[in-house]
Specification:
15 helices, single chain, about 375 residues, about 45% helix, alpha/beta
Length: about 375
């Protein structure tokens, strides 16, 4: 007997919606290459005729060519939250609905902070629950998760950067709340509801390059301070992966949650940080022309550490570091311009495969990393 035709209102099994978020002064086309890689990987994984319906990559446009560098991360985040909520609402009310909507974000540079702010708003408002979405992957490439407070020690930087990049620069330098860095946007992003929104995701990946001249490696990888050498890729991790690790990947590891570490780990970390902080205080005191006092330097360092602790306590982060020629490393991470940033293609393909691999395999990878 002939099979009955499926009526338009019948729900499809699932839809994976991936929102890409570009960086500062960016455009939707900046994420076009990685969007194409995601679509191709999902279609390849599907074995049915309607596999093309399984993934939908949305190149977010709410901040394209907009003056987000003047208005700030929070204003850009509000715009992105509205765009995401409107899109998901349209999916839920369309004639072809889906039993499950999986939600992922792939972000470059400042876009990672904008997405974190947007997700915090969507979580706090109850929109993610109301729309019944399953949060899958949150991936950032070269995002200053801990801000750029170290730049505030560069003479005159705290004055010049806000003139060039407005409120965004003040927020990254943690100068947007003069009374206390604890009131700055960067600090707030490391608290609830923003961290609670991150906890909803089953995969959290941070990708960076030590050659990146625009975003510091420590800030991009949730580190208190940089190790003397890259940790490399554990043999056990390489063995379980069904695809090769790119040659330029120098670090593939789970981010240690210091709250879950041993007492010895925490004491060693406290000691290392205290030494590091004292050196910074001395450097600030020696520079009489510095725009930042020794006191504020110390507070900034402690805030940097507190932010890292809180974000690491979210748990389940996978840290990936890759090496690139220094000049265009920031753009190579996402192949912003394919003919110019082709060096990043193998890294992008690798990260996309990690996003699309079965969850139980990813969790095993995270356990061994």
């Amino acid at each position: 007997p002939q099979q009955e035709k499926v009526p338009p209102s019948t729900a499809l099994p699932h839809m994976h919606v991936v929102f890409t978020v570009h960086g500062l002064l960016g455009h939707v086309d900046d994420m076009a290459y990685i969007a194409a890689e995601i679509s191709a990987a999902e279609k390849k994984a599907g074995d049915s005729e309607d596999s093309s319906n399984r993934v939908q990559v949305v190149l977010t446009q709410s901040n394209a060519w907009r003056s987000s560098f003047i208005e700030g991360v929070d204003v850009s985040g509000e715009r992105l939250a509205r765009e995401v909520e409107d899109h998901l609402n349209n999916l839920r009310t369309s004639s072809t609905s889906h039993d499950e909507i999986r939600l992922s974000f792939v972000c470059h540079s400042l876009g990672g902070l904008v997405a974190r702010h947007a997700l915090g708003l969507l979580h706090a408002s109850g929109a993610l629950d109301r729309l019944a979405v399953t949060c899958d992957a949150f991936v950032t490439f070269g995002t200053p998760h801990l801000g750029s407070s170290d730049w505030s020690r560069v003479p005159l930087m705290s004055r010049i950067a806000p003139l060039l990049f407005g409120q965004c620069a003040r927020q990254l330098l943690m100068l947007d709340a003069p009374s206390s860095v604890d009131d700055s946007l960067m600090t707030q992003l490391s608290l609830a509801p923003y961290t609670n929104a991150l906890k909803r995701f089953k995969r959290r990946m941070i990708i960076a390059s030590k050659e990146d001249l625009k975003v510091g490696l420590a800030s991009a990888t949730l580190r208190y301070e940089l190790p003397s050498q890259a940790s490399g890729v554990a043999e056990a991790v390489a063995d379980i992966l069904p695809f090769p690790v790119p040659a330029n990947v120098t670090c593939l590891e789970a981010v240690v949650n210091m709250e879950d570490g041993s007492d010895d780990d925490r004491e060693r970390d406290d000691s290392d940080f205290a030494s590091h902080s004292n050196q910074d205080d001395a450097a600030c005191s020696d520079d009489e022309d510095s725009e930042v006092s020794a006191s504020s330097c110390s507070h900034s360092d402690r805030s940097f550490r507190a932010m890292a602790r809180r974000l690491r306590s979210v748990g389940g982060w996978l840290r990936i570091e890759a090496t690139f020629p220094r000049l265009f490393a920031h753009e190579d991470l996402v192949v912003r311009v394919p003919w110019l940033n082709a060096r990043g293609k193998s890294l992008v393909a690798f990260v996309v495969r990690l996003m699309m691999m079965p969850l139980h395999e990813y969790e095993e990878l995270l356990r061994l990393a």
